[in-house]
Structures are given as structure tokens and as C-alpha cells.
Amino acid sequence: MTTTTPLLLITADPSHPLAHLALRYARAYLKSAANSHDIEDNDTNSTGSSDNATTEQPLLNVFFYGDSAHIANRLRWQSAEQIDLTQEWKNLAKQYQLPLPVCVSTALSRGISDSENGTRHRLDGDNLVKGFTLVGLSELAMMMQSNCRLIQF
């Protein structure tokens, strides 16, 4: 049976309600998928064939594009009464081993850089949050090439 891995294409600025909705969706989906995945693993283990861990698909693909790149800015201040989307995405990524790719060109155009791009483009420092990675649009294309359901926030 072929499974469809959702791809969350997040384009909303962190202050926009859609950015918060994307996080809530990802949380709910991952929790549900992990629970059903545990059931499938238990079924597989009982039959004795479970050596496909290296070819296992991710539960969810995420890609930060456009204004959502601001979520990956470690210098973005967050008031105490608002949800810190950056920290919440980091927590979710740690819990589910979820990559957090950010489009490099949209990040750089918004003043967000890692050390490698900072050096390459002669920028004064870097400010990418640890856990996020700057990637090219080819990463998004590869995610879309596989059997996926695209959901944009």
C-alpha cells in the first residue's frame, strides 16, 4: 500500500494566524501518524519482518518559504504572551526527527543567513536558528516529486 506523505508549504509570516495553524496542523498530524505508525510497527514486528527502517518515509515534510523564513530568525523577538513559533517548531522537530528546511533565497532576501551563506555573500554574521537549514528550491521539488499531498499555509 502506497502512503501519501503530506507536504506543508508554509509561506505565512510568523505573526499571521496561518503560521500558527500550520504548527497546530503539524502537531495533530504527527501525533496521529506516530500513533498509527506504532500500531503498524507492532504488527510488522509480530510477523518478524521489520528491516525496512532505512527506506522509511518521513511522517511529514515541511518547507518554509517566503515570509515564513522569519520563523528561522534567531534574532526575532517574541513577546511572552504569544506562542514562540520558532521554539515550538524546534520542539516538534526534535520529538519527531523532522527536518526544518527553509528556502535559502527567500531567507537571504529577508536578512536570514547561516554562517556558510554569510561568508559566501560577505554578510556581517549569521542568524539562522539551530535546527533549521537553508536549502535550495530543489529540495521542495524533490518533496513534491514523491507521492505527496501539498497543503499551503
From TrEMBL:
Q: Which family does it belong to?
A: Belongs to the DsrE/TusD family.
Cell compartments where the protein resides: Cytoplasm
Task: Spell out the InterPro entries in the cross-references.
Answer: DsrEFH-like, Sulphur_relay_DsrE/F-like, Sulphur_relay_TusD/DsrE
Q: What is this protein called?
A: Sulfurtransferase complex subunit TusD
Q: Which NCBIfam families match?
A: sulf_tusD_dsrE
Q: Name one Pfam family in it.
A: DsrE
Major localization listed first in the record, in broad terms:
cytoplasm
Keywords tagged on the record: Cytoplasm, Transferase
Q: Which domain of life is it from?
A: Bacteria
